[in-house]
Amino acid sequence: MTDRRPKIVGFCCEKHGADAAVLAARSGKHIDASVRLVQVPCTGRIDGIHLLSALEEGADAVFVLGCLEKNCYYDTGSIEGRKRVGYVKQVLAEAGIEKERVEMFNAASTNAWAFPEAAAKMVEVAKRLGPIGGGEK
Amino acid sequence: MKAMVQVVLCRCCIEVSKLLDMERLQKVASESNNVVSTVAVDAVCDGRNLAPVMAEAKLKEVDRAVVLACHKKDISPAVVKAYRRAGVNEYLVEFVNIREEVVLPHMGDHESAQKKAETKLRAAISRAVLLSPLEKLTEQMATRNVVIIGAGVAGQAAASEAARTGAHTILLEKTGRSLKAPGVILPHSQVVGAKGYGGNFTLRIRAGEKSEDLGAAAVVVATGGGWTSLRGPLAKAVKDAMPLYRFYEVLLSGSPPNGPVVIVDTPDPVGKTVRVQDYAWDETLETVIELKKKHPDTLVTVVFQEMRAFGLSELAYKEAADIGVRFVRYDRNGSPKVDPKQPNTLTVKDLSLGEVLSIRFGTLVFASIPPNEDNKLLADALRISMTADGGTRRGSIQRWPVTTPKPGVFVCGSALFPKSKAEAKVEGQAAGAMAGAFVMRGVVEYGGVVAEVTQDKCSACLTCVRTCPYEAPFIGTASKAEIRIQACQGCGMCVGICPSKAIELRNYTDEQIMTETRTLLGGDF
Q: What phi, psi does B179 have (nearest 5°)?
């Protein structure tokens, strides 16, 4: 169980989130290879079902990376995204799954540290909690 | 019809091919039965390399493409243009950032990087197959009007710059003062409501007693700063305080100041209503130096909370201190007070001395001005958002310093937060030039990635109407939601929030996003 690599899915917005990830790579930051990025136009586009289905398909942790709330490209998009993540956390708690597996982060496109930090945090969470349901899969 | 996909692998200046096995990637690509052609090029950003790719695309009659290269924003304009010429719809070109998402962050880990790249390629192909072709449409702007709200320093600068591009400028001034600026000036007028989208606004204007509608292609918010008199306890004790700009005018007219001069930073230093954001330092220092030079015997004290003398203002600060201007710094706990029984003495706790000082004054001047209270009304009318301090919010401080998140609405000067005259003028010029350029395009481009309502599923709950920051969704004649696609910016907020799942964002449907996620999770790395 210990040598199994966790699977992390990151939903990032095309505006600041993706730029922060690109800047992180260009400034020589290394991230865990298990992070899979999916781009959406805005974190407000994220629906609970995207996060839940990612967990269902085998992800150990899911995170959402959006713009800073006061500097969002689409005005209120990242606030909406945070609401969806909160909703999914609630659903997970009701289903008896650790709600730390889903997390929302904010970054400006100039924050090179934000994406590696978010990825590292989720990898840490996934390693600590192990696979969903104790690893019978 | 079967999708015909072309896969373009960019070696990205050798970095990619150093870490990844390009032949294995090509093999993975050709495994998919939708892929009809795979090409590897040295650098897709070099236009010369694109010609053979496009020749191949035409030959194999591909209708969509997956490009594995670097950041989408860097390469997409050239690649998309080339594909458009080859007859491929621009929304069917899918980009995978293999360089920054795989190669650079996983430099030492050859095996994982290879697997990750293969999985990303598979995911991109699975997504590309599901994409649908979209078109961009255009609409003529009804007017060439740039409406500038507020005819202060920033507003006048915006007007002259917008007029230079050839746009019609209309200035709305709240007061009746006479001013010179190119364009139509409407005195005693205010915006009370607005409809429409960038390019075709209809503003509801109250001019004097009358209300009327005014067509506008772009709006520049230049409402400037707010109060021109003291507020709070100071206002009760001191009757004849004046703002800095008026004091400067008096100074220029040549009349000597009435007794010692005290300049405080904000009109309400005691109250918590205003955070001192930007003391108008350049102006303050300029004024005190001028004052000391003209009337060297006058005692001048500057009372401030925060020091922001940027760049060369630092020299002016030093000069002012050298010629005998006193600077007193305070904080919230010891903010300046005036006892109504002694209306000519200001008491303030000096932060550096730690003592309470009593300063006698004949003239009290305040420098910084808070944001305009009209900003709230304007924000409600135009549906733009505000900062916590009561200013108008700009799009992004790095990329769009004089635009609001709403297309076609620009903002400049102290409407954002208090700032100096020179800065307000420069911002006004920038906003005016941008508004002018926006208007002179003459057409509104819309469409592409926009939201779409399946009306059978809609229950007209108004959630989308309330959520959209651009006023794109509305309840149409059929009592179902509709999207005004000219206003839609393609963020998909209404799509995510719709409880009936009646709205879809073109090319970012649930199916497309979830298929991509599923394929990405399929690989083990």
A: -150, 160
Picking from A65, A70, A61, the residue whose alpha carbon sits closest to that of residue A106 is A65
Dihedral pair phi/psi, residue A55, rounded to 5°:
-65, -35
Q: Do B497 and A44 touch (CB under 8 A)?
A: yes
Pick from A5, A30, A110: which is nearest to B105 by CB?
A30
Closest Cα of chain A to B109: distance in Å? 8
Closest CB to B101: pick one of A5, A37, A45: A37
pLDDT (average), residues B281-303:
88
What are the extents of the domains in chain B? 5-134, 145-226+372-443, 233-366, 448-506
Contact B395/A at CB under 8 A: yes
Q: Between vectors from CA A114 to CA A108 and to CA A115, what angle results, nearest 5°?
A: 110
Neighbour count for residue B77 (Cβ, 10 Å) = 10
| Shortest Cα distance, chain A CAs vs residue B405, angstroms | 6
pLDDT in tens, B385-414: 888 778 888 887 777 889 998 889 999 988
Tens of pLDDT, residues A85-131 = 999 999 999 999 999 999 999 999 899 999 999 999 999 999 999 88
Name the DSSP letter for residue A34.
Answer: T
CATH number of the domain located at residue range(s) B233-366 in this protein? 3.50.50.60
Instruction: Give the integer Cα–Cα distance in Å for B286 and B193.
Output: 40
**To which CATH superfamily is domain B145-226+372-443 assigned?**
FAD/NAD(P)-binding domain (3.50.50.60)
Sign of the four-CA dihedral B483, B485, B487, B488:
positive
Per the CB < 8 Å rule, is A26 touching B100?
yes
Summarised one tens digit per residue, pLDDT across range B213-234 is 999 999 999 988 877 788 777 8
Burial class (CB in 10 A: 0-12, 13-18, 19+), A94: exposed
Domain A8-134 in CATH 3.40.50? The answer is yes
Q: How confident is the model at residue A1 (pLDDT cuts 50, 70, 90)?
A: very low
Q: What angle do CA A20, A21, A25 make, to 5 degrees?
A: 115
CATH hierarchy code of domain B5-134: 3.40.50
Q: Which residues are bridge partners to B220 per DSSP?
A: B148, B410
Question: Domain-by-domain residue ranges, chain A?
Answer: 8-134
Query: Which element (helix H / strand E) includes A79?
Result: helix A77-94
Two structure tokens written together for B272: 């918590």
Helix (H) or strand (E) holding A107: none
Question: Measuring CA to CA, which residue among B162, B180, B159 is closest to residue B171?
Answer: B159
Rounded CA separation B470/B115 (Å): 42
Residue B518 to residue B489: CA distance in whole angstroms? 27
Task: Show the tokens assigned to B384.
Answer: 């733009």
Q: Is the fold of B5-134 the same as that of B145-226+372-443?
A: no
CB contact under 8 A, B395 and A73: yes
Residue among B116, B393, B396 minimizing CB distance to A33? B116
Contact B521 A36 (CB under 8 A): yes
Single-letter code of the amino acid located at A49 = I
* ipTM reported for the complex surpasses 0.90: yes
pTM: 0.82
A34 touching chain B per CB within 8 A: yes
Give the residue from B121, B491, B509, B515 with the most A CB atoms within 10 Å of its CB, the best one to mutate: B491
Q: Is the pLDDT of residue A2 over 60?
A: no
